[in-house]
Specification:
alpha/beta, 3 domains, six-stranded mixed β-sheet, four-stranded antiparallel β-sheet, elongated
Length: 750
C-alpha cells in the first residue's frame, strides 16, 4: 500500500516538476528502509510536497520567472505595435480611398497662415576649419517672404557649405560665426522644424509610390491637431502644384527597377518638404542632372509656391539657362568663400557695367559670371579681348529666351561708354574687395539693418507648438512616429518579400535536413548524446549566420535616415524601435520558430510544454542577439564588404568560446577563463543542452545520467534559467549599443 501511495505522489508531482523520484529521498514517507505510522506518513508526505514546491519557486525558478516576464513584456509591446500598425494601415487606406475624389482647388491646409511674412537675414557668416583654413568669410544677405533667391559660384566656392549653415545642418569640422535671423529673431533649434531642406541627391523610399512618400512626410511632420483627411488633402495639393498627380500611384523606383523620371524624383524631393508648409525652403543644386524642360519646370513650381504661400526660397545653382536665371528675385554670387555680388537680380547688369565688365548682348548672364570667375585675368582684359575670349570659349552660349535677357540688359542705361576701356578695366575688378566698396553692399547692409530695427518691436512670431515640451505630448509624439515608421517599414517589407521568403524557406529546408539526419533520437547510448549535441550546435550556428542579413539594415537607408533625421522627421529612438520591430519579429522570430518546431517534432526531443518553450525561446534569443551584434557592425562600418567580413570573423570568435570546444576548467592560462563569459553563443548553447539532458537517464553507457555527461564535458547542470537570463540581457544590451552607435556614430552634418 505504501509503495502505491508513493508511486501516485511521484506521478502527481511529475505533472508540475521534471524527473521527481521520491524513492531517492532520505526522509519522508517514501524514503527507503523507513517505516512510520500512517499519521506520520501523511504529515511527511505533505511536508515533502510543500518543501519541494517552495524550493523550486524560490531557487530554481527565480531566473525563470524573470526571463519569462521580460519575454512577455516584449511580446506585449510587439503585439501593440503590430496591431496598431495594421489598424492604422487599414483605416488610412479607407480614408485615402475616400479622398481620391477630393477637389484639389480648395485652399491649402493652414498649419500656419498661408500668406506668411517671414524674412531671413544673414550677416557676416564665416566658417573656419579646425586646421585654420577659411572656407567662408563675412557673407551677408537677405531673403524676403515670397522671394526666390539663387546662390551662384564656381565649383568649390562654398555654396553648399553656406546653405547648410543657414539651414542649421551640423557642421562639426569647424567654427561658425555671424548671425542669422528670421523676422529679426535669432535662429534657434525650435525654428528648425519650420525650415525645409532639399539635398542634392534624391533621398526617397524607392519601394513606395509618390503619394505614399509625400503622405508619410506629412504624417510625420504636420501638427497632430490636423486631421488625417486634411493631411491627405495637403498632399494632393502639393502634388498638383508640382505637377505630380499623374504619377501619384507610381513607385519611385531605382536603377534596377522601373519608376518615375529623374525630374519627377526631384519634384518629389521638393514635395517632401512642401507638405510641411515651411517658412524657409533651402535647396542644394535642385536642377543638377535634369534636362532643360524639367529644370525650368522645377523653378517655375518654386516661384508659384513662393508667390502663393509666402515661403522664402533660397537655392544654390551652378550654371542655369537664361530662361531660368531671369526667374530669380535675388542673386548671391560667391567666389573663394567670399561674396562678390548680392542684391536684386535687376542690379547685376548695372553693377558689372560699373566695374568694366558688362554682360555682352545675347549672352547668358549665368555663363558670363562663371567665365569671369574662373578666369583670374579676365578683368584685366580690354573690351575687345573679352569679346574674343567669350567667342572662343567652349561654354554653351545658347540663345534660348533671349527676350528675357534683352529686357534686362536693354533696361540699363550704359553710362561712361566713352571712358577708356583699358583704364576702366584696370581700375575695377569683379571681386570681394570691390564689392564691399560699392553702393550695392552699402544698400544691402542698410536694408538688413532697417528690417531688423523695424521688427524689434513687433516681429511676427513663428508658430511653434510649445505643448511639445510636456512629457505626455512627447510620449504621444514618439508613439505616433513609431507607428508611422512601422507602417512604412511594413509596406516596404510586403513589397520586398524576398528576404523574408528566403529566411522562412531555408529555415524549413534546414529543419527537414536535420530531421532526416537525426530522426527520432533515443537515450540508449553515447551516440544519442553526441547526436543531440551536434544537432543543437548546427541549429545555433544556422540562426547565428543567417543573422548576417541584419548587416545592411541601416546601410540601405543611411542617406534617407540622415536626410530625414536632419530635417526632424522623427527622433532617432523612434526610427530605431520601428526598424528593430520590422526586422526582429518577421525575420528573426518567425523563421526561427519554424525551424525549432519542425526540428523538435522530427528529432523527438524532450517531451513537456516547458521544455518546448525553453527550447524555442533559446533559439530565438540566439538569433536575435546575433542580429543585434550585426546591427552594431552594420552601423559603424560603412563599407558593405568590410562589414560582412568583420561580421563573419566576430561570429567565428563567439563560436570558438563555447564549452563544447573548450573546457575552461582545464586551461593552463587562468586569465583566459574570462572568455567563458564573453560569448553569447556559449550561454545559448549551454541552455539548449541543459534543457534537453539535465535529469535524464542514459541506457547502455557507463555514465548513466545526462547530468554526468554534462559535468564531464564542462557544462553546468543547474544554470538553465541563469543562461537564459544572461542571454536576454546580452540581447537587450546589444540593442542599447546599436542605438547609441546609430545616434552618436551617424551624424547629419559633415
Amino acid at each position: 500500500m505504501s509503495s502505491n501511495v508513493c508511486e501516485l505522489k511521484e506521478r502527481t508531482m511529475n505533472l508540475f516538476f521534471s524527473d521527481v523520484i521520491l524513492s531517492n529521498c532520505k526522509v519522508g514517507s517514501c524514503a527507503k528502509d523507513l517505516v512510520q505510522s500512517s499519521d506520520e506518513l501523511k504529515f511527511n508526505a505533505t511536508e515533502i510536497i510543500i518543501g519541494n514546491f517552495t524550493e523550486s519557486i524560490e531557487g530554481t525558478n527565480s531566473h525563470q520567472m524573470t526571463v519569462y516576464s521580460i519575454v512577455v513584456i516584449m511580446l506585449i509591446f510587439s503585439f501593440i505595435i503590430a496591431s496598431s500598425t495594421l489598424l492604422f494601415m487599414v483605416s488610412s487606406k479607407r480614408i485615402v480611398k475616400r479622398k481620391r475624389e477630393l477637389i484639389l482647388s480648395k485652399e491649402s491646409v493652414g498649419t500656419r497662415n498661408n500668406t506668411k511674412h517671414n524674412t531671413m537675414t544673414f550677416k557676416n557668416i564665416s566658417y573656419k576649419l579646425k586646421n585654420g583654413k577659411q572656407i567662408l568669410s563675412n557673407i551677408s544677405g537677405i531673403v524676403k517672404s515670397g522671394e526666390v533667391a539663387a546662390i551662384m559660384g564656381p565649383s568649390g566656392a562654398g555654396k553648399t557649405t553656406f546653405i547648410e549653415i543657414l539651414a542649421m545642418r551640423y557642421m562639426t569640422a569647424g567654427k561658425i560665426s555671424g548671425s542669422v535671423t528670421i523676422n529679426a529673431k535669432p535662429l534657434n533649434d525650435k525654428m528648425k522644424r519650420n525650415i525645409g531642406y532639399v539635398d542634392q541627391g534624391d533621398n526617397l523610399s524607392i519601394s513606395l509610390t509618390v503619394f505614399e512618400n509625400l503622405l508619410f512626410s506629412a504624417l510625420l511632420r504636420l501638427p497632430q491637431d490636423i486631421t488625417m483627411e486634411q493631411k491627405i488633402e495637403q498632399v494632393h495639393k502639393v502634388m498638383k502644384t508640382l505637377q505630380l498627380s499623374h504619377v501619384a500611384n507610381t513607385k519611385i523606383g531605382s536603377s534596377g527597377s522601373r519608376g518615375i523620371s529623374g525630374g519627377e524624383k526631384r519634384r518629389v524631393s521638393v514635395g517632401m518638404e512642401l507638405v510641411n508648409n515651411p517658412d524657409i525652403l533651402f535647396l542644394d543644386e535642385p536642377t543638377s542632372g535634369l534636362d532643360a524642360y524639367n529644370a525650368k519646370l522645377l523653378i517655375q513650381c518654386l516661384n508659384q509656391l513662393a508667390w502663393r504661400t509666402g515661403t522664402a526660397v533660397l537655392t544654390t545653382i551652378h550654371q542655369p539657362r537664361s530662361n531660368i536665371f531671369v526667374q530669380f528675385d535675388r542673386l548671391l554670387v560667391i567666389h573663394q568663400g567670399q561674396s562678390v555680388f548680392c542684391g536684386p537680380i535687376q542690379r547685376l547688369h548695372p553693377y558689372l557695367s560699373s566695374i568694366g565688365s558688362p554682360i555682352p548682348p545675347d549672352y547668358n548672364p549665368a555663363d558670363y559670371l562663371i567665365d569671369i570667375l574662373f578666369d583670374d585675368n579676365f578683368a584685366e582684359l580690354s573690351s575687345n579681348e573679352k569679346e574674343k575670349f567669350l567667342a572662343s570659349s567652349n561654354i554653351n552660349t545658347e540663345k534660348e529666351s533671349t527676350e528675357d535677357h534683352v529686357n534686362i540688359s536693354q533696361s540699363i542705361d550704359f553710362e561712361g561708354d566713352d571712358m577708356d576701356s583699358e583704364k576702366r578695366n584696370a581700375a575695377t575688378l569683379f571681386n570681394n574687395e570691390e564689392y564691399l566698396k560699392s553702393h550695392l553692399n552699402d544698400d544691402l547692409i542698410q536694408e538688413i539693418d532697417e528690417f531688423i530695427s523695424s521688427q524689434m518691436t513687433s516681429f511676427e512670431e513663428i508658430n511653434i507648438d510649445e505643448n511639445k515640451s510636456h512629457l505626455l505630448s512627447k510620449i504621444y509624439l514618439w508613439s505616433w512616429q513609431v507607428l508611422i515608421l512601422s507602417s512604412r517599414n511594413t509596406i516596404v517589407l510586403f513589397r520586398n518579400p524576398l528576404l523574408f521568403a528566403f529566411h522562412v524557406g531555408f529555415s524549413i529546408y534546414f529543419a527537414l535536413l536535420l530531421g532526416v539526419m537525426y530522426y527520432d533520437l533515443d537515450m540508449r547510448s553515447l551516440s544519442s548524446i553526441q547526436n543531440r549535441l551536434g544537432a543543437f550546435m548546427l541549429m545555433a550556428v544556422f540562426v547565428s549566420f543567417t543573422s548576417l542579413s541584419a548587416l545592411p539594415l541601416f546601410w540601405l537607408e543611411r542617406p534617407l535616415y540622415v536626410h530625414e533625421r536632419s530635417n526632424r522627421f522623427y527622433s532617432t529612438s523612434a526610427y530605431f524601435v520601428s526598424k528593430i520591430f520590422s526586422d526582429i519579429l518577421p525575420i528573426r522570430v518567425i523563421p526561427t520558430l519554424i525551424l525549432g518546431l519542425v526540428s523538435y517534432a522530427m528529432l523527438g526531443l524532450r517531451n513537456g510544454g516547458t521544455h518546448l518553450i525553453d527550447f524555442l525561446l533559446t533559439l530565438v534569443l540566439i538569433s536575435s542577439t546575433a542580429a543585434s551584434i550585426n546591427l552594431i557592425i552594420g552601423i559603424l562600418i560603412k563599407n558593405i564588404m568590410t562589414g560582412i567580413f568583420v561580421g563573419i570573423i566576430v561570429m567565428i570568435h563567439f563560436f570558438m568560446m563555447t564549452k563544447l570546444f573548450i573546457n575552461f576548467d582545464d586551461l593552463s592560462i587562468k586569465a583566459v577563463k574570462i572568455l567563458n563569459y564573453v560569448s553569447y553563443f556559449n550561454f545559448g548553447y549551454e541552455a539548449l543542452v541543459q534543457n534537453e539532458l539535465v535529469g535524464r537517464t542514459i541506457q547502455d553507457f557507463a555514465v548513466d545520467t545526462g547530468n554526468g555527461v554534462l559535468e564531464y564535458l564542462g557544462f553546468k547542470i543547474d544554470t538553465l534559467y541563469q543562461n537564459l537570463f544572461i542571454l536576454t540581457f546580452y540581447f537587450l544590451f546589444s540593442l542599447v549599443i546599436a542605438f547609441l552607435s546609430l545616434k552618436l556614430g551617424i551624424r547629419e552634418g559633415r
